[in-house]
Amino acid sequence: MVISSIDIIHELGKALTPEQVAIDPMSLENYGQDWTRFTPPAPKAIVFPRNTAEVVAIVECARRCRFALVPSGGRTGLSGGACAANGEVVVSMDKINAIAPVNLTDRTVTVGAGAITQNVQQAASDAGLFYPVDFASSGSSQIGGNIATNAGGINVIRYGMTRDWVAGLTVVTGKGEILELNKGLMKNNTGLDFRHLFIGSEGILGFITEATLKLTSPPKDPTVLVLGLSDMNAIMSVLGSIQSTTPLLAYEFFSELAVAKVVEHAGVARPFETRAPFYALVEFEHENEMTDARIFEAVEKCMDEAWVVDAVMSQSVAQARALWRLREDISETISQWTPYKNDISSTVSKVPQLLSAVNAVVHENYPDWDVVWYGHIGDGNLHLNILKPGNLRIEDFKARCNEVSTDIFDAIKKLGGSVSAEHGVGTLKAPYLNYTKSDSEIDAMRAIKDIFDPDGILNPGKVFSTG
Ligand code: MLT
Ligand code: ZN
User: In sequence order, what are the beta bridge partners of 121?
Assistant: First the structure.
């Protein structure tokens, strides 16, 4: 039975109020894509459930009438995981966004999937606690999307990924069942923990509608140091020197072209006059005056070794924020060049090999194109962004980059690394999943999807290659 778009909208209208179903061109355009901008949006409709029961009703409708659903959070993703390009119905979590009072005894907070990350961080902070998962898009990304992509960000070196902060999940599977996973428990050894299957599942198993998040104590007086590095090889030596004296909250790196772009287009101030080919941004807790002494000693050693050519340290919260902009503003600033994003990783110890392999590919294949390097290098995670030359069509640019990326992915495979460190597989990395996962793992992933989504209605074309 093939059911028309009009009938589908009519059926959805039985489960939801008219205001909860949008089909106007602006909504279709806005909710049909994420920040990737590589796939033209073409959803059939956007629906706005207000609670878990309404998500169940939408799934039942989709199973009965056989149409596909795309879960949608803040759509800040960078792998095309939330794109709806083939007449799917987008299920926005915007209205499931309540934040319950912080539970100070459990040190948790229970939130709707549509809660904005920054609002959750604020709620924790108002209660004297800290939700440590943070990134530049926290003002618009939603918790459900963070969980569905196991988002990383700038504090992973200290606090880990989103997965480490989820104590409980409510999900609606592709069969329309509601599962309450782990129920906020700190200890629960009762066999398989499905919570971890849904974290990072990119909407192919079910909808996350609610989450209980763990909270912790805030870090003491976070202080930022920006270092100019003499060359790429200095990055890990500097990390080793500083980390051996002080535990770090963040260790980020970026190239001079990244700095030039944020200075020119985002009005960010340079950290110092000296231009270095690469920079490191280090954040640490300022425990007492001994911290300063230890850090100065480590930086001096790095200068003696000629790894570091200049340095600046924040003296106030405002200065720390200003220095962070050098790193956090890169992604949004370069988005105007529709960058092709490589989000890759190796173990931290193999980062020097990763950098030299990737550098060789860049020199050979992109001699005339602008290449912006940055990343959470202290976690082994490198973001390599190729900027689209103005005269090239998006499809041609993507095809050209895809060819080159296989050389990078070959190198990653040899190092036992990942083709998607934190952005997820989505549609863009789906053809390359086998560079990181074995055939047996991919078969098992497909079998698990069949259990939770037997009709294949959830986020089709994502994670698994269709070609
Ligand atoms: C970042 O680290 O800035 C984010 O992952 C976004 C990006 O890679 O562009
Ligand atoms: Zn990142």
Answer: none
**Tens digits of per-residue pLDDT, 3-34?**
788 889 999 999 999 999 999 999 999 999 99
339 CA: nearest ligand 1 atom: 9
The closest residue, in CA terms, to atom 1 on ligand 1 is 331
The closest ligand to the CA of 331 turns out to be: 1
Query: Can you read off the two tokens belonging to residue 168?
Result: 């409980």
Counting from 1 in the atom list of ligand 1, the atom nearest the Cα of 154 is 2
Question: Are 417 and 355 within 8 A, CB to CB?
Answer: no
CATH topology of domain 222-331: Alpha-Beta Plaits (3.30.70)
Atom of ligand 1 nearest to the CA of 376: 2
Give 21 Cα–ligand 1 centroid separation in angstroms.
32
Q: What is the distance in A from the centroid of ligand 2 to the CA of 176?
A: 33
The structural domains of the chain, with segments of one domain joined by +, span 5-95, 108-214, 222-331, 338-448
**Among candidate residues 85, 121, 87, 88, the one with its CA nearest the CA of residue 102:** 121
pTM of the entire predicted model: 0.96
Give pLDDT, residue 151: 97
Of the candidates 425, 387, 117, the one whose C-alpha atom is nearest the C-alpha of residue 255 is 387
CATH classification of 338-448 is 3.30.70.2740, yes or no? yes
In terms of CATH architecture, what is 108-214?
Answer: 2-Layer Sandwich (3.30)
Ligand lying nearest the CA atom of residue 345: 2
Length reported for the chain: 467
What is the predicted pLDDT for the residue at 368? Answer: 87
Residue tagged 């066999």 (tokens): 191
CATH 3.30.43.10 fits 5-95, yes or no: yes
For tokens 């050693």, name the residue. Answer: 301
How confident is the model over 364-415, as pLDDT tens digits?
A: 998 889 999 999 999 999 999 999 999 899 999 999 999 899 999 999 999 9
Apex 51 CA angle, 199 and 114, nearest 5: 50
Closest ligand to residue 76's CA: 1
> Is any atom of ligand 1 closer than 6 Å to the C-beta of 136?
yes
Report the first-to-last Cα separation within the chain, whole angstroms: 26
Ligand 1: does its nearest atom lie under 6 Å from the Cβ of 331? yes
Neighbours of 267 (CB within 10 A): 9
pLDDT, tens digit (0-9, with 9 covering 90-100), for 204-241: 999 999 999 999 999 999 999 999 999 999 999 999 99
